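1st attempt posting a full record on here, be nice pls
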Amino acid sequence: MSVITKTNNPEQLLFRILNVIIKRHRSILVIAISLVLGALAYCLITPPSYMATATLLPTVSVKSGLGGQMSNLADMAKGLGLGNFDESNPLTLYPSMLESRSIKTKILHTKYRSKKFADEQPLYVIMGIDEKDQARIDHIGRMNLTEATLVSLDRKTGVITLKVESEEPQLAADIANRYVEELTAFNKTLRTDRARENRIFIEQKLKETEDQLVKTEENLKRFRQANLRIGNSPELLMELGRLTREVQINEGIFLTLTQQHVLAKLEEQRSTPVINILDAAEAPVSKYKPPRRKIILFS
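the predicted structure (as tokens):
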């Protein structure tokens, strides 16, 4: 039976700790060596990876007001099947676009240069996905891209940061820049399609209004030809006023639609970029992981 006595004397406590270390120094040494060897093995076995970074600044059009811009973005999100996004900050749509399946699939099928192959190969080939079914390949490839990609949004500045990790520094930069290219093209296509739809809609309304204007003008012309002497007839004066108002209303609508049609054609042809590239991705010089120095120091 052992009796454990408690002491508050620091010197005695330090002596006991040293005594335990001396008695069990072999076990402690074995554990320490095992940790160091394990850390070294991990550093040697784990292939180095590099992280390339690109920064973007999407612009939000204010010519139609924030409400109109948010409505357009909401429609775009529904069309992409992205579900709900933060409507208090419409820029949150762009990270969702970067993380969408359609953009990731295009990136997977893009050819890149890699040290593993002499010629350019699709990314899913470089990844070494051992599957025969293309749908399965795309699914696994998108999962790999999700793990290797980090997208963040600074809600105060609106700056989007895109980071891509790869075992090859140049490949990491190429993939990140491809993300930016696909996002820009995708966004431009959506804007162009929307502008084209708007222009076609206005053209249809303009044609209908023009036909209606011609019809009302003909009605007014026939009425005047049939009633050269209206005199003070209340009925004829009332009918003349009604026909005249119809012509004036259609003229006003026709002029408004004509102006809108000109603006719609200009909007469709406009090629102003809506996503500004602050920093294109470059091949990183230093490794992202494993952090060998930190691992060895901590071990």
